[in-house]
Design goal:
2-enoyl-CoA Hydratase, Chain A, domain 1, globular, 4-stranded mixed beta sheet, 56% helix, alpha/beta
Length: 245
């Protein structure tokens, strides 16, 4: 999808109308925006000492969030539409977008500290710019789950929507802001220029994450695997719900 976005703009007339002006990231799985990384892949790679596999996974993830953060180097506003839980890498994905719209029942969290690790694919970079380093570290090290309302109060969630109204809230946001789209995307581009999140920074942090992951103990990995089991059960229940629709 991200490659298609870049190629679509590359092939369009630079003097003509842009192919589109907003890009929305969402989920069709009820109750789940994104539950984060593949924890069993992590655990197996760590046990096998496969540094290159962990690094390749982490780099792929930061490439994705970087593209969202820089709006694909196009006059696009990127929007995360969070309906359900956004945990770990899911939270990082939402944070990488220019705007976060979340339904009231959505939950956000960075559970990595529960198995003695940290979220290494954008959380610190994005949170420290939306908040500050002290509050970013407090959030990362707490491991707690935050409500959409709490994050809205903190300024992380931009638009708080009622349950079931997330898509309508996104459409309303676009309708309200579209007349000033030029100014809006320019402000977000300026945000990236003044407090840039660079790909090299994200990859450097990913390397720190890889090194920390390889230092996890057997006890840490067992905790990770228990969380992976819970993650899989949530995914399975979501798949069943989608199949029933």
């Amino acid at each position: 999808m991200q490659s298609l976005i870049r190629s679509t703009f590359a092939e369009s007339d630079p003097d003509g109308e842009a192919p589109f002006r907003y890009f929305v990231v969402g989920s069709h799985t009820p109750g789940i925006f994104n539950l984060g990384g593949d924890l069993m892949l992590f655990a197996n790679a760590i046990r096998a000492g496969e540094r290159s596999k962990l690094q390749a996974y982490a780099y792929s993830c930061v490439d994705v969030v970087y593209n969202n953060a820089v709006s694909y180097d196009q006059p696009i506003v990127t929007i995360a539409m969070v309906q359900g839980d956004a945990l770990g890498g899911g939270f990082e994905t939402a944070l990488s977008c220019n705007v976060i719209v979340a339904e009231r029942s959505a939950k956000f969290g960075l559970p990595e500290v529960l198995f003695n690790l940290f979220p290494g694919m954008g959380a610190y970079s994005f949170l420290s710019r939306r908040l500050d380093a002290v509050r970013a570290e407090k959030m990362i090290l707490s491991g707690r789950i935050y409500t959409a309302a709490e994050l809205h109060e903190m300024g992380i969630v931009d638009v708080l929507a009622e349950d079931g109204k997330g898509e309508a809230a996104v459409r309303d946001y676009i309708q309200r802001t579209d007349r000033k789209h030029n100014a809006l995307q320019a402000v977000y581009k300026t945000r990236q220029r003044v407090a840039p999140v660079t790909l090299s920074e994200l990859r450097d942090v990913a390397d720190i994450w890889v090194a920390a992951a390889l230092r996890l103990t057997s006890a840490d990995l067992r905790k990770m695997e228990r969380l992976a089991g819970a993650q899989d059960r949530r995914r399975a229940s979501g798949a069943i719900a989608v199949a029933a629709e």
